[in-house]
Structures are given as structure tokens and as C-alpha cells.
Amino acid sequence: MTGAAFRSLLLPPARARASIAVLALALWATAAGAAGFKATVEKPPADQGDTFELVLSVIGRDSLEPPNVAPLNKDFEILDRGKRSRMELIGGRMAEVNEWVLLLAPKRAGRLVIPPLTLGAETSAPIEMNVSAAAIPEPPDDGPISLSVDVLGTPPFFLQSEIPIVVRMYDRVGTLGATGDPPTADGATFSQEGEPKSYARVFDRRRFRVVELRYIMRPQRTGTIQIPSVALRATIPTSPPGAQEQARAMGRPAMPWLGGNFDAGRKVTVFSNPVEVTVQPRPAGVTGWFLPARAVRLKETWSSPPAKAKVGVALTRTLRLEVQGASPAQLPTLKPVETDGVRQYADEERPEAAPVGGAPGAVAEVRVSVVPTRAGTVTLPAVTIPWWNVVTNRAEMAQLPAVTLQVTGAADPAGLAPPPATAKDAPRPQADPAAEAAPLPLRDMAAIALVVVMIAGFLLFSGRRAARKARIASPPPERPVAGLPARPGRAAPTRPAVRRPRLSLPDEKTAAVAVEAACKAGKAAAAYRAYLDWNRASGPGHAGTASARTPAMAAALHEISRHLYAGERDTWDGAGFRTAFAAERKAAHTPPKTRAARTLAPLYPKAR
Fold this sequence. Notes:
Layout: H1 3-10, H2 14-32, E1 37-42, E2 52-59, E3 76-90, E4 93-106, E5 110-114, E6 118-119, E7 122-123, E8 127-131, E9 145-151, E10 157-158, E11 163-171, E12 177-180, E13 188-192, E14 197-203, E15 206-219, E16 223-227, E17 231-236, H3 243-250, E18 266-271, E19 275-280, E20 292-293, E21 295-302, E22 315-324, E23 342-346, E24 352-353, E25 361-372, E26 376-380, E27 383-389, E28 394-400, E29 403-407, H4 433-437, H5 442-472, H6 508-521, H7 524-537, H8 551-565, H9 575-589
Parallel strand pairs: 10-19, 20-27
Antiparallel strand pairs: 1-2, 2-4, 3-4, 5-8, 6-7, 9-11, 11-15, 12-17, 13-15, 14-15, 16-19, 17-18, 21-22, 22-25, 23-25, 24-25, 26-29, 27-28
Helix pairs in contact: 2-5, 6-7, 6-9, 8-9
């Protein structure tokens, strides 16, 4: 077979290549999965008064008849309906996605199920959800807009407590604009917490838009502190006579354009209810950190069992503090206690507001890297958090028991210690071996084979075409450039040689002596600079960086960096850094182990 015939087999005509491409795309789309009718919930409801969207979607086609949503009327109220379409990349190709969007409100609390819904001959899967009782109080009056001020915390409140205050505006007419004053009180300060939050709620079959602002009240004295009424100035739409009542009867807000024209609206001012807060003094005899709360829970988890600890191998210990009835600023710091035989590094602790036991509270979590430095039995002391129980009005203690590590392995005199634990230390989800071992369907294998054949043919054709172009377009020969003639009586002009500065590399032995001298003198900055010079001269791959070849040097670099950048004023002991540097120099001069090269078997082995 000639070369041209062989190329003709690999490269079919243009029409055949186009057919193969269409067939491959069709099989690829088939392998991605056929379009179907499905139901999804966006932002499930938190309580009975919350609203949510149910999206019913179909891919690759449209339906003149909408889905049958009558089964939803048993547990949900349909507040609004809509339809939208968009283009989405599915299985490597653009497909049309048609969606029916339903705004739903639960009719009751408890375990609710969105039943299977039908679209023609297709049926969606059911969706389960748990809905708690409504936590948002109803509007204080029946006006178009209303304002309320509530205390989220549960008394008693103490002088050093931070009391959460919430201001809510209830709007059921579509307010055109509103401005309000922050709460104030004689004997307390207020600071806004976060951004305004807006959501929808249903009260007595009427839909409201609720705008919520949260504040933190800090009492400056004991006794009764009164929060006066807060004023809200708003512009509400107006409507022709009878439209307001008609809209209310239909359970919808009034529309100002029912009369055929728009107007600027009507300006109104509403006031909230006054609130009184009683602040008690700090209990007698309580010293140290004061944490008033209704409940406190202290938990811990380990990345691996402490009984199987090894020298130099980091264990990740996660401490979690959950406090009911407190704010994030009131939580104490979860610091590990220094213990002989281990080194502990804690990452940054970030307390945040979160519900605890179904009530407002705060949560703090910290990850600690625990690195054993010697073999044997090492006991981590108990973790204790003192707090004041506002329910029983007495001091209590949340405690984690002491943890005993059974450490195995040889001790390292340099003291191995990795950098602090990060989010990467968290265990990753493992793949299911059964799912990975499942065979591919036949249509998937056919689609993949066609795509591979197309790619191979395209690469072969492109390579031969590029080679032909390279032979045709050969570069022109270089011509000598004539120099400028010299003028009579002057020497021929010459170009000065360009001299580039030569980089002088530091001497490895000189840098090592500088590291030793700085460690003995206790000068951390000089030791760090000398180590960088030594690392630059020690070989490629580590030039000018604070990298390390050994775990001991990595720990020593972390310690000296923390000392330099944290602004610590205490003296620096260079003994540990000097010991780690000695191990680092030894590792730098140790040649890597190479594997013996394999020799090929003889092409024609001799008979024995």
C-alpha cells in the first residue's frame, strides 16, 4: 500500500469527516444523559413563615402544558407562579432549559414532603424538608408598614454582656423608599452588626417583605435601661378608591398603577414600641473571664486516634465551643496548654453567631496541630471553660478530660514541628471503590473511541501539513553586513563591549559560619539572613528562599519567622535553630539515592 493510499484511509473526505463529527457529538450527548423532568428547591424554608422557590425544569425541549402542581395544595400555599428559559452547556453542547418557578409557603410546621409532580408522562422525585415553628413575631399593627424593636437575648443581662437587638420593618404594600433612625438609650451604646437583611414572610395568608437590622447593645450601667421608640419615615404607593381593599381581599399588595397613572406616593412616619432592659451587676466572687450563658458545650475531634501517635507526625485536634445565649465577642479564647513532650500550633480562631440548641448563640472553633517530640506516654491536660449559668444563677464549668498519647518511634533531638494546622489538614472525602470500578456503558465506550480516532487523524494530518510548509518556506541566507567606512584622518568607529555585572554568589562555608555566630549571639534577624545566603549557595532548587530539606529546619524557620514578624521583645534562643541547621547541612551534602539502571535484554539471546 502506497503512502498516499495510507493517508487516504486515515483522512476521509470532508463530508465524511463532518458526518463522523456529528455522530461523535450525538453519541457524546447521549452518553451525558437524556433530558428529564426534575424538581429542585432553592433555599429551603427555615420556619413556617418563610417562603421558598420550587423550580420544575425540563432540558432540551418545551411543553405547552404546565406541570400538574395540584398535589402541592395539601401542605403548601402557592403565592406566585412564573416561567423562564435559558441556554446551558450540558454534555459538551448548548441545550435549552425551561423552568417553571413556584413561590411556596408552608402551611404547617414539621416534616413536609413535596410530592411527585407530573409533566406529561414524566414524574419528578419527592423532596423532604423539616420546617420549624415560626420564629419571627407578627407585625405589631395592621397598617401598610409597621416597625418593631425586639431583644433577641434572654434575661438576665449583666453589666459586661452584649445584648443583641433587632429592628424589623414589615412592608405589605411595596414601599417606594424608607429611612429610619438607629436605636438609642441613656446608659448604653449601640453598634450595627452586619448588613440589612430582607426576606418574605406570610402572616395570616398575607405576604410581607421584612427588612431586618441587627444591633449590639452594650450596657454602661446597671438597673433599668429604656430604649425609646424608633422612628421610620417611608413613602408608600397610593391607589384609586377601592383598589386597596380589593388587593387586600386577594392577599396581594395594592398596585398604584390601577388608576392608569403613577404618582410620587404618600409620605408616612411610623414608630416602634419602646423596650426596657434590666441590667444586673456582675455576680460577687466571680473572677477571670465572665461568660454568662444558658448552656455551654465543649467538643473535640481528632484526625487520628491519640493512642497511635508517632514522634514527628502531626495530629490535628479540633476544639469546638458552643454557647447558647451569648454573642461571639463574649467567647473566651481556646488556647492549648503548653505540655512537655509535644509541640502545639493553633490556627486563627474565628467566633461567629450561630443557633445553638434552637436558640441564638455563638460558636468558636480552632484547629491545633499536636506534634509529639519524644516517645512514651504524654498527657495533654484537661481543657476547662468557666461560665455563669443564667438559668440556675450559679457558676459552672465546661470541661474536656485529659488526653493521653501513647507515642511510638525514636525521639528527634531537634524537635520535629510542622507549620500550624490549616484547612488542608481536614480529612477529605474518599471515593467509593465500587462506583469507580463500575464498567462504562457500551454507548459511552463507542463515543469515546470515535472521539479518539478523530483526534488522532486530525493530529496526523496537521503534522504532515506543517512539515510540507516548513520545507517550502526555507529562511533566506544571511548576508554579511558591511561596516561603516572611516572618515579620512579618523579611526574606524568601534562599538564598545557591553559589560554586564556579574552576580557574586555567597560562599557556603562563610554563610554557615555566619549562621553559627548569629545563633550563639542570639541575633534572630542576622541568623535568618545568613541562612538565606547559605541556602542560595547550597545548590539549585533552594536559591534565596526560606525553604528546608528537613522537617526540623522547617519547624525552626517557622519559629524564627514568628519571632521576627510578631514583634516579640523577648530574647531569642538560637540553640534550637543551630541544631536544626546542622541537620540541614548534613541533608544538603548527602547525595540522593539512585536506582540502578536496567539493561535491555539482548535482541537475539544465545542458546544455553
